[in-house]
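Any chance you could type out a protein's amino acid sequence plus the matching backbone structure tokens because I've never seen that pairing?

——
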Amino acid sequence: MKTLVTLFLVTFTVAAHSEPADCPLQGTWKSDAARTLADIAARNALSDRGKSALSDNFFGHMVHEWTCTDLRAWFDYQTRAEPMQYRIVERALDSLLIAFPDDPEADLRITFEGECYKLLTGSKGFYEYFCPVESP
């Protein structure tokens, strides 16, 4: 019995300590409009016309739901999207390179900043920020 308890404790401890490193994105994340708009302003990344087109209501609606193998991405006013398989192909101290085997052009560089992460938005030269959503 003592061996069984020891085996359980070792297994539980290894699982508890390995999950965050193996699956650093697991959970639900939502676009943070305030941080994203601040980044746009700081970089002067858009013209005044572009900024008005991206009013305060444009950002803050994208949801990312990560498991250890899949990503679902959708707007909060739409139905939940189908999962896309991914894998982490590169790990750095503050970033991850994510590859999508079914869509190589969708690869993402995720850079962590505090409890949130940010994604460079193509050729526009600004970051969209995503922060964790509390589970209900």
